[in-house]
Write a structure and sequence with these properties.
This protein has 265 residues and is mostly helical. It contains 13 helices and no strands. The protein folds into 2 domains: 114 residues, no CATH class; 119 residues, no CATH class. Helix 4 runs parallel beside helix 8 and helix 4 runs antiparallel to helix 9. It binds a DNA duplex (21 and 21 nucleotides) through helix 3 and helix 6.
DNA sequence: AAGGAGTACAACCGCAGATGC
DNA sequence: GGCATCTGCGGTTGTACTCCT
């Protein structure tokens, strides 16, 4: 007995999101939160699957996201965490503020994996690919690499010494070192974070916040400006946090403000 | 300049766990 | 306990872009 599809596939649009769709989604979530993702597209006037809306929001539209490549410190932290947690991208992402699991996963697959292979380290086990070669050859592979690459290498050597475990995923629970190290890494990270990069999404947010001055979601936005902590709670700001009485009052046109040209050009 | 190869990243898909009835 | 539904996660794919020949 198969599951129902999460949405009516015939009605649902796929592929890249348009600026107009982005704005609808942002406006809707700022105004109402997300009651349940399945209902969001309908209520927001989007012909998208709820899943797609959730993904778009969490991976791209959330205002607390950082943009741009991961810094060296972030990369080191990802490698460190990966050596302990394995491919648990959501857990890794939770330790990198402003980064998403998808982003980290992509970065791992495109950058870090290759970097580790280049260093002679198995990106899955974080063990040297050829132990004999590394023991015979006094010059570690890291010596041929940049400072940041050497940092990675040292971090991995440190980790493999500290966790004398066969699999990186076996040491997840009850590891006091883990939380301590993660905190240490967080401190390291916080000293080396890049400032946010201006982006199209920022422009989108600017346009929305100017719209917000004339609408009823300025409250949500102001709390957003204070800090992004409301977003951390956003997992929960469902029906119990937001009144949905207003939903019927939302005119689709009201969500379609004219400032969306940014992305379309 | 053309086009093939490589790269980066957004988005989709399917599965599994959590939850409610 | 069984089933339906929702959500989140990880793997994979699609596509736009860049680089190289």
């Amino acid at each position: 007995m198969g599951r129902q599809p999460c949405c009516d596939k015939l009605e649902v649009k796929k592929g890249p999101w348009t600026a107009e769709e982005d704005k609808k989604l942002i406006s809707f979530i700022l105004t109402n939160g997300h009651c349940c993702w399945r209902a969001v597209p309908k209520l927001a006037g989007l012909r998208r699957c709820g899943k797609s809306c959730r993904l778009r929001w969490t991976n791209y539209l959330r205002p607390d996201l950082k943009r741009g490549l991961l810094t060296d410190a972030e990369e080191n932290l990802v490698i460190d965490l990966h050596s302990r947690l394995g491919n648990r991208w959501s857990m890794i992402a939770a330790k990198l503020p402003g980064r998403t699991d998808n982003e980290i996963k992509n970065h791992w697959n495109t950058h870090i994996k290759k970097k580790l292979l280049k260093m002679g380290i198995d990106p899955v086990t974080h063990e040297p690919l050829n132990k004999e070669a590394t023991s015979q050859d006094n010059s570690s592979p890291a010596e041929h690499l940049s400072q940041s690459d050497r940092d990675h290498h040292q971090l991995i050597v440190h980790n493999s010494k500290e966790n004398s475990i066969s699999s990186p995923t076996e040491n997840i629970c009850g590891d006091e070192h883990l939380s301590q190290d993660i905190n240490r890494s967080d401190d390291l990270l916080s000293n080396d974070l890049r400032p946010d990069e201006t982006s199209l999404v920022d422009a989108l947010w600017e346009s929305i916040s100017s719209d917000a001055q004339n609408t009823n979601y300025d409250l949500a936005l102001s709390s957003c400006e204070d800090s992004s902590s409301w977003l951390l709670d956003s997992q929960d700001f469902g029906v119990h946090d937001f009144s949905f009485n207003c939903i019927n009052e939302i005119e689709p046109q009201a969500l379609q403000t004219p400032a969306m040209e940014v992305k379309e050009h």
